[in-house]
Amino acid sequence: MGWPDRTPELATFYPTSCLITGFDILFFWVARMMMMGLHFMEEVPFRDVYIHALVRDAQGQKMSKSKGNVIDPLTVIDSYGTDAFRFTLAAFAARGVT
């Protein structure tokens, strides 16, 4: 986006309003994003953090591309269809607190 120059793209996308993430990287990534944003841009990069549940495999481990325990959504869509896939994701999503 052109950083450290003040480009139109940077002005459009920084800061943003909300970061959506899992709780497992709050300290490792989100806190650093906040500190770096304050240091280099002199403003916070986001005001709200929405924390969602982690997706786990059959053994209870966090699904991760680096672990290789993920499911390819295109394979599921080819087998069951897009509507069934969307419904399943919506049905099994953890409910948030409002």
N/C terminus separation: 34 Å
> Count of DSSP helices?
4
SSE arrangement, N to C:
HEHEHH
Average of the residue pLDDT scores: 88
The shape is elongated
The number of E-state strands comes to 2
Describe the largest sheet: 2 strands, parallel
Report the helical percentage: 40-55%
Strand adjacency order, main sheet: 1-2
Strand content: 5-15%
Word description of this protein:
The chain has 98 residues and is mostly helical. The chain folds into 2 domains: 1-52, no CATH class; 56-93, no CATH class. The protein has helices spanning 8-13, 26-41, 73-80, 82-92, and strands at 18-22, 48-52. Strand 1 (18-22), helix 2 (26-41) and strand 2 form a beta-alpha-beta unit. Helix 3 (73-80) packs across helix 4. The mean pLDDT is 88.
Question: What key attributes describe this structure?
Answer:
about 100 residues; mainly alpha; two-stranded parallel sheet
Summarize the structure.
By secondary structure, the protein is mainly α. Helices cover 42% and strands 10% of the residues.
Task: Provide the fold topology.
Layout: H1 8-13, E1 18-22, H2 26-41, E2 48-52, H3 73-80, H4 82-92
Parallel strand pairs: 1-2
Helix pairs in contact: 3-4
